[in-house]
Specification:
heterodimer, A: 305 residues, mainly beta, eleven-stranded mixed β-sheet, globular, B: 239 residues, alpha/beta, Rossmann fold, six-stranded mixed β-sheet, four-stranded antiparallel β-sheet, 9 helices, 36% helix
Chain lengths: 305, 239
């Protein structure tokens, strides 16, 4: 691994060295390092690119890191990763993709992730996207995430895209059985002429299922963002969808939260707000000795924290 | 020392120009505590904003320790040790009370120091350190946190714009106690815009600002009894 690889791994997975526990590092379309642990096995798929990650029932306090890095120009990487999370387990999964494109051709990574979360299992899934490189070639990331949650399971998904990705189309689907609980926190910042589109369909199919979707975004320059989160209540359930965006410069944002109830005890709420940075916030920080530029940066960093 | 020399401020709207501040001159000696009071719409808050640099005067000069700061930015005035507590403090999504106090202080504040400031404004610190400075805080809570942000700074002049506005009676009692505490230990000069006699009582000086001018200014012992006498009679001569 070279310095660029290490920078990218740090940016997308907070990795400074070889991770503890099970891991798989994919670079330019190929797995370059892989390790299973006693309770978590990682196997390459036989029929298509990607891996199967299997967590034994009852596995507690373990982590899986599966970062992807692309450092060449003109790479078109498609990978299918399936996670089988055993009943009663409790694990942290850190994914993420970094593209360093120093050439003039498009580099793209499309990660298709499916999670099958067993009864009473808990996962925290963190996915960071990052792009860099001096080339004119586009950096494109189009993740698809499918989450199937069995009874009383819990999933917390945090997706972060702060810098350097030219175009992203994110599709997320979740289906929740009885008592399952899902929290999605999506943080996004676009700049330049970047485009980001996030579609989500959350189906609450079992009694007492609950979902909380929080989307925070900042759009700068001439970038464009579209959010389309949908929560569908098919049973007695609770869901809350919240989209909150800061708009700056010549950017454009569309936020279309949709809620649907197919059961009389479905309780679903949505909130959406788009607005510029509040002038009083800027003034307050200036009265503390910050410059207007520093104040703006502090406000954005806190908003996306 | 703060000196305002012939400060004017006017705004233009569809009805023409309106004078908000008319040729105000006043001096605040180092370490003094001045309460500015007077009827709503009389120009008190504008005066405070002009000192902080949030508004620019249309005439006159502001001197701070002899230096002309009339055209200086808010940031530069803040760096000279001037602080300002908002009448309606803004809220910040994602910022914790501890973050805000650290920002005010200029560096990461240790937990015990944050707690000391919060306790000083009557907030049970452990409950608040990691609370977000967002709409989950009540009006009284955010005002007290605002005061704590000024305490966390090393100021030479602290300006509070109606600290009592928008808070309940119980919070107000705590607030008066906070100011009593601050006025005993402080080294900095202090200006509080206030309508409250309990705050006026602890000041060194009182200025009555109405209709854009200073109607009266003098020691608290002189102005306060006059003001009370006017309130108790049916006439209000300072209007």
């Amino acid at each position: 691994m070279n310095n660029i690889d290490r920078t990218m791994l740090q940016a997308v997975a907070d990795l400074h060295e070889t991770p503890q526990g099970a891991y798989n590092i994919r670079k330019n379309g190929e797995g370059i390092e892989r390790r299973s642990s006693a309770n978590i096995t990682i196997e390459p798929k036989q029929d298509k690119p990607g891996i199967d990650i299997t967590v034994k029932p009852g596995t507690k306090n373990e982590s899986v890191h599966i970062p992807v890095i692309i450092t060449e120009t003109g790479v078109d990487d498609l990978t299918y990763n399936d996670f089988y999370i055993g009943d009663d387990s409790d694990v942290v999964i850190v994914a993420g993709c970094g593209i360093h494109n120093s050439g003039d051709k498009k580099s793209e990574h499309d990660g298709i992730h499916r999670f099958f979360i067993g009864k009473n299992a808990r996962i925290k899934y963190v996915e960071k996207h990052y792009g860099q490189g001096e080339g004119t070639g586009e950096r494109v990331l189009n993740p698809v995430t499918e989450i199937y949650m069995d009874e009383n399971s819990y999933c917390e998904m945090e997706s972060v895209q702060i810098k350097g990705v030219d175009s992203t189309k994110r599709d997320t689907v979740a289906k929740l059985e009885k008592g399952a609980s899902l929290v999605i926190l999506e943080k996004l910042m676009t700049h330049g002429d970047q485009i980001a589109h996030s579609d989500m369909v959350i189906e609450l199919n079992g009694e007492d299922a609950s979902a909380q979707i929080i989307s925070r975004s900042v759009a700068k320059d001439t970038s464009q963002q579209v959010f389309y989160p949908r929560a569908v209540g098919n049973a007695k359930c609770r869901a809350h969808v919240q989209c909150d965006s800061i708009i700056m410069d010549e950017a454009k944002i569309r936020s279309i939260p949709e809620i649907a109830a197919n059961h009389f005890e479905a309780n679903i709420v949505h909130e959406a707000a788009i607005g510029r940075i509040n002038n009083d916030q800027l003034l307050k920080l200036q009265t503390m000795g910050k410059t207007p530029e520093e104040a703006e940066e502090i406000i954005i960093n806190c908003f996306l924290k | 020392m703060l000196e305002l020399k012939n400060i004017s401020f006017n705004v233009a709207d569809e009805k023409g120009e309106k004078d908000i501040i008319k040729d105000i001159s006043l001096t605040l000696e180092d370490g003094k505590f001045l309460v500015i009071t007077g009827p709503n719409g009389g120009g008190k808050s504008t005066l405070a904003k002009l000192i902080m640099g949030i508004e620019q005067p249309t005439g006159g000069q502001i001197l701070w320790n002899g230096q002309d700061i009339t055209n200086m930015s808010i940031t530069d005035r803040a760096r000279l040790g001037i602080g300002y507590a908002f009448q309606h403090p803004p809220r910040f999504k994602g910022l914790s009370v501890r973050d805000l106090l650290s920002l005010a202080h200029g560096s990461d504040l240790p937990e015990d120091q944050c707690c000391a400031y919060l306790t000083h404004v009557g907030l049970c610190s452990k409950d608040y350190l990691n609370r977000q400075v967002d709409s989950s805080l009540s009006g009284g809570e955010i005002k007290r946190i605002e005061i704590a942000t000024l305490m966390a700074r090393d100021l030479q002049l602290a300006i509070y714009d109606e600290p009592e506005a928008g808070i309940d009676l119980w919070s107000f009692n705590m607030l008066v106690e906070s100011f009593k505490g601050i006025s005993k230990t402080r080294k900095e000069s202090m200006i509080i815009i206030s309508h409250q006699e309990r705050i006026m009582k602890i000041a060194d000086e009182i200025a009555i600002v109405a209709d854009g001018v200073v109607k009266k200014i003098g020691p608290q012992s002189e102005i306060f009894p006059e003001l009370m006498a006017e309130f108790n009679s049916n006439t209000c001569t300072f209007r």
